[in-house]
Amino acid sequence: MILQYFFFLWLITEGVIVVEKDAKIPRHPHLNIPNLHIMMTLKSLKSRKYVEEKYNWKHQYFILNNEGIEYLREFLHLPPSIFPATLSKKTINRAPKMDDEFSRELRQPMGRGRMYDKRNFD
Questions:
Q1: Neighbour-count burial for 37-51, b at 16+ CB within 10 Å, e otherwise
Q2: CA distance linking residue 90 with residue 78, whole number of Å
Q3: Has residue 27 got a pLDDT over 70?
Q4: Confidence band, pLDDT 50/70/90 cuts, at residue 120
Q5: 82 in a structural domain
Q6: CATH classification of the domain holding 68
């Protein structure tokens, strides 16, 4: 039960999990929980339509949907302000645009180029 609690807490913070479809793996590489337990828990969540499964090359990708988010919030007694990282938008820090006059001063002066570096050429 404690492992299930920590797994559900991790799932609601991330929103997605990748599981290798091999029951003989002793532990999941990120969670330190037996891989078989994670597979069976996700199978249960999938049958209740709380996660969507995508399968590719012996790996299962489980994506938490809106019903699953509500279920995990209720199960873990979390406030509605907690939501998965897959639903949050990342802010992109971009450098402010510079004026042409200012940026021209920052550029290095133009040289003669590689063609003029040859010794016999003037």
A1: bbbebbeebeeeebb
A2: 23
A3: yes
A4: low
A5: yes
A6: 1.10.10.10
